Backbone:
């Protein structure tokens, strides 16, 4: 996170209010994205896992430009995650 200048609160905000959610690259993970706030067009991604009521953050990174859409997460799973987060 330090390399990309992403704060802990930014990662939490991305998980709570993502603009796009997809299946993560690693097994049983979720990737959430929010567009960057700078004049440069970039995206900030967070990959995490849920187990019960806990969320384990795997990684966070910046993607330059706009990434292509892949496998979206079904709505019922997103509702379950929102209930865990509160």
Residues:
């Amino acid at each position: 996170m330090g390399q990309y200048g992403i704060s802990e609160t930014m990662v939490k905000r991305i998980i709570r209010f993502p603009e796009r959610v997809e299946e993560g690259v690693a097994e049983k993970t979720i990737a959430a994205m929010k567009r960057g706030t700078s004049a440069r067009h970039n995206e900030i991604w967070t990959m995490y896992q849920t187990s019960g009521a806990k969320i384990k953050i795997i990684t966070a990174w910046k993607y330059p430009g706009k990434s292509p859409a892949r496998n979206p997460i079904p709505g019922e799973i997103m509702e379950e995650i929102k209930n865990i987060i509160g």
Observations:
- The chain has a mean pLDDT of 83.
